[in-house]
């Protein structure tokens, strides 16, 4: 299964890649929402994990843009963020997010969430 991770933090992308590769996933990465759209177009993805607070195109805009593409309307999108504001969580759901995970994440819980939404 191919996972696209979109986060402006190199450290977070590295942590995600290590955890996901260890769990047997193929990982492609993007540094912000704008780059995420380019990577998604070039590589595809079975599941997307995105941060919310990013430069150029934030997570909300990224999710909305992904959902506008018929090819990815059903692709699960998990938001992985430090945000815990219920209004932001609701906004992400309305944009098309499938789930919400607050950082710091536990690798096993993240893998479990990926498998659940991809089933």
Describe this structure in words.
The chain has 119 residues and is an alpha/beta fold. The chain has a single domain (2-118), classed as Rossmann fold. The chain is 47% helix and 19% strand. It contains 5 helices and 5 strands; from the N terminus they run βαβαβαβαβα. A 5-stranded parallel β-sheet has the order 2-1-3-4-5, sandwiched between helices. Helix 2 (33-43) runs parallel beside helix 3 (59-68). The radius of gyration is 13 Å and the shape is globular. The protein starts with a strand and ends with a helix. The mean pLDDT is 96.
Helix/strand layout:
Elements: E1 2-6, H1 10-22, E2 26-30, H2 33-43, E3 47-50, H3 59-68, E4 77-81, H4 86-95, E5 99-102, H5 107-118
Parallel strand pairs: 1-2, 1-3, 3-4, 4-5
Helix pairs in contact: 2-3
Structural features:
119 residues; Rossmann fold; five-stranded parallel β-sheet; 5 strands; 19% strand
Mean pLDDT reading: 96
Beta-strand residue fraction: 15-25%
Helix content: 40-55%
Biggest sheet architecture: 5 strands, parallel
Q: In the CATH scheme, what's the topology name? A: Rossmann fold
Supply the CATH class: Alpha Beta
Count of domain modules: 1
Q: Tell me the number of helical segments per DSSP (H or I, 4 or more residues long).
A: 5
Structural class of the helices, strands and pairings? alpha/beta
Low-confidence stretches: none
Task: For the record, give the distance between the C-alpha atoms at the N and C termini, rounded to a whole number.
Answer: 11 Å
Largest sheet, spatial ordering of strands: 2-1-3-4-5
| CATH architecture descriptor text | 3-Layer(aba) Sandwich
């Amino acid at each position: 299964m191919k996972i696209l991770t979109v986060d402006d933090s190199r450290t977070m992308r590295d942590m995600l890649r290590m955890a996901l590769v260890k769990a047997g996933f193929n990982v492609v990465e993007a540094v912000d929402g704008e780059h995420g759209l380019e990577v998604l177009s070039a590589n595809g993805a079975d599941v997307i994990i995105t941060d919310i607070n990013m430069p150029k195109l934030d997570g909300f805009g990224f999710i909305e843009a992904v959902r506008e593409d018929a090819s990815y309307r059903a692709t699960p999108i998990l938001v992985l963020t430090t945000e815990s504001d219920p209004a932001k969580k609701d906004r992400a759901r309305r944009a098309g997010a499938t789930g919400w995970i607050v950082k710091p994440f536990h690798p096993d819980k993240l893998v479990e969430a990926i498998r659940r939404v991809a089933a």
